[in-house]
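Colleagues,

For the teaching module next term, I've prepared a clean inverse folding example: a structure given as tokens, and then the sequence designed for it. I'd like students to try predicting residues themselves before seeing the answer, so please don't circulate the second half yet.
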């Protein structure tokens, strides 16, 4: 089965092909990307192929293009466009490519229902990796972020932080208009185009995609198991991600159920006496609750301390080339060799 076509048409050649290059690096998009720099070439292509999604500059728009039977047309606007184009959704051209594609996916998700037959996703079975520890201050999130960025060099990777206090807006120095709370709102509404909604929320750091975490602890504590199950099922069945990383805190009751779904669990641990006793209590509890399988797929990790070599301004990106990043590359080479 072929992917649906996402066409980009802009009369500025450099913009069109630079944007196409960016899209081709986005491994999570379940589209085949086509770029055009003239309305004529787009028309010729559209007469022979169905275009599901078209992002087109206002200067390139033609009456004949409207008659092609395109699934969704979005105008790439320079700020002001002709009134006759007001019937279409629009995104502002001169912003980052990541912001443009996020807005495009949000527009597409507002009205397009996901049909698994008409909207095929070409991927292998998704690998679910859990990163969890009953201990605090053990570099769990730093490990998960470094692991995600390293894997994202070659695979489509989605990272979800499930902690009560992630500190992501402070860590990355930016505000997020939507987050995991909004995604669970759509889950509870039974939204049929959930993956498109999610794609409209995706942020990216160094090729690693993530949905911004919740802002308030109650938003993660009150998610019921049925909602977790529905979200993970949708991501598994209908997204293009090859790897899902769950960075899990201790504030949700469904941790054991989520760990059960993971194919692999990384558990950072510490060597001090109190930490060893806490780990022993956790492992005993798993055995009492007949969750021995979680122990079998869990790998305990003594992570290298790396803080001295990383600045706060670009902490997340620098993780990849820190001692922690080197440790993870060795870990992956050992596991996949």
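(Answer key — instructors only)
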């Amino acid at each position: 089965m072929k992917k649906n076509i996402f066409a980009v048409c802009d009369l500025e050649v450099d913009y069109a092909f630079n944007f196409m290059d960016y899209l081709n690096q986005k491994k999570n998009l379940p589209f085949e990307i086509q770029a055009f720099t003239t309305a004529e070439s787009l028309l010729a292509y559209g007469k022979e192929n169905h275009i599901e999604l078209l992002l087109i500059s206002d200067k390139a728009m033609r009456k004949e293009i409207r008659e092609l039977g395109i699934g969704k047309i979005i105008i790439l606007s320079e700020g002001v466009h002709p009134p006759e184009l007001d019937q279409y959704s629009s995104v502002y051209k001169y912003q980052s490519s990541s912001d443009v594609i996020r807005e495009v996916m949000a527009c597409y998700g507002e009205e397009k229902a996901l049909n698994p037959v008409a909207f095929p996703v070409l991927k292998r079975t998704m690998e679910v990796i859990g990163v969890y520890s009953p201990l605090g201050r053990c570099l769990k999130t730093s490990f998960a972020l470094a692991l995600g960025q390293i894997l994202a060099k070659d695979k489509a990777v989605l990272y979800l932080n499930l902690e009560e206090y992630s500190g992501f807006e402070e860590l990355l120095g930016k505000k997020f208009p939507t987050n995991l709370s909004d995604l669970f709102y759509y889950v509870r509404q039974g939204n049929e185009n959930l993956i498109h909604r999610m794609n409209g929320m995706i942020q990216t750091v160094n090729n690693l995609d993530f949905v911004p975490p919740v802002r308030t602890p109650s938003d993660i504590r009150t998610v019921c198991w049925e909602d977790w199950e529905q979200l993970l099922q949708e991501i598994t069945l209908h997204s293009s991600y090859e790897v899902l990383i769950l960075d899990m805190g201790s504030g949700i009751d469904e941790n054991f159920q989520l760990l059960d779904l993971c194919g692999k669990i990384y558990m950072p641990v510490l060597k001090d006496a109190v930490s060893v006793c806490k780990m022993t209590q956790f492992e005993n509890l798993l055995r009492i609750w007949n969750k021995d399988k979680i122990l079998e797929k869990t790998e305990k990790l003594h992570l290298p301390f790396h803080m001295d070599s990383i600045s706060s301004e670009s902490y997340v990106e620098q993780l990849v080339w820190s001692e922690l990043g080197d440790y993870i590359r060795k870990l992956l080479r050992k596991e996949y060799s």
